[in-house]
Amino acid sequence: MFSPYRKLFAVPGALRFSIAGSIARLPISMTLLSITFVIVHVKHSYTLAGTVATGAALISTVFSPTWSRYADRLGQRKVLRFTVPFYIGFDLIFLIAISKHAPTYIWMSAIFLAEIFLPNIGGLIRRRWLWNLGEDRVMINTAYSYEALMDEIIFIIGPLVATSAATIISPASGMILGFSFMAIGTTLFISQRSTEPAPFRQNENEKHGFILGLPIIQAVFFPFIFIGAFFTSTNLIVVGYSQQHHAVAYTGLVLAIWAAGSGLAAIFNGSIKWRISDASRFRLNLLAILILSLPFFFVHSMAMLAGALFISGAGVAPLIVAGYNVAEKSVPPEKVTETLSWVIAGLSLGGALPGTLTGHLIDSKGASQAFVVPVACLLLANLATLPYLGTWRRISDH
């Protein structure tokens, strides 16, 4: 079962750039959770925290694909050396401003400015895998599954570190640790130039087409919006549920159990040579994750919440990997990083949608009643595939 992974790790320099990139993207599992802790600690409002998360995700959705396009044209090293210092700097301004009780528009603006400079490191790592693996589709599926596993490990470690730091040291310490991981990880990542994809020369006579204009990309992008909404609403509910049950210290552990379910699924997904198409797997996994999330409605304790999250998590990684495969194979190599960034941006955009509503339900009805939001998001994700049935049938035949 593990032989595909041994072959993958035998690629020169591959494990080094993957580990460095994973360290660099640890903040994705720490920052928003830490921001929630900070805002709730200072302002005592989940609604406000959800609103800030909404604005941040919208801004990241707009700008992240742009940095990915520049990474293909100029090189990953140049883009990361420019964007990461600005991202960290503006987030530090947020921490200083909110701790000094500055007006809301000041610290909120700092968060939004930080998101302008947030690079999609996950997309850059996957682009490196493609560059180093060539046309070996079986190994590319293994690489994507491995990165999905690393994402889940990140979402196991990150929330545990952020929650522990927030409860033991201070709410802001989780963000500070996240910045440290990003600075160290990106430094190691860009130093490995032998595995960095060569920049693509831009043809001045060729117009850059809008990636989302392709129906195949839309067929993945729009369901991913609601998957992103599912992730964000579930994260907020877990935080709220833990606080309302006086178990804040277990927040990170419960989120880690959710990630563990997805991580185990990623290992099996990457070890299988699939006989069905990526498109068929995507639609089947989309239905599966909806069914696997129905136990949310029967949660009455922290232990039951952890169990329901583990079951739901089993559907996450296979779905995301299939979506990446469909999108990446639909564009030429010089547009892969931007395409993957748009797919991930769909998750971020969706993450922006339910924050205010979920926060309001947690504040007014309680976290248990708010579970209707993530399940509804998964239902909408399945419905979002219906306008593209012709597209799905066509690519399922390839």
Mean of residue pLDDT values: 86
Low-confidence stretches: none
Give me the oligomer status: single chain
* Structural class determined from secondary elements: mainly alpha
Q: What fraction, in percent, of the residue positions are helical?
A: over 70%
Largest sheet composition: none
Could you tell me the radius of gyration in angstroms?
Answer: 20 Å
Give, in order, the helices and strands.
HHHHHHHHHHHHHHHHHH
Strand content: under 5%
Q: What is the end-to-end distance? A: 26 Å
Number of helices: 18
- Annotation, overall tally of beta strands: 0
Backbone shape? globular
How does this structure look, described?
This protein is 75% helix and 0% strand. The model has no long low-confidence stretch (mean pLDDT 86). The protein contains 18 helices and no strands. The protein is globular, with a radius of gyration of 20 Å. It is mainly α and 398 residues long. The chain has helices at residues 3-9, 14-24, 31-43, 46-74, 76-99, 104-116, 121-133, 137-168, 173-191, 215-244, 251-271, 278-292, 302-313, 316-328, 336-352, 355-364, 372-383, 389-396. The longest helix has 32 residues, at 137-168.
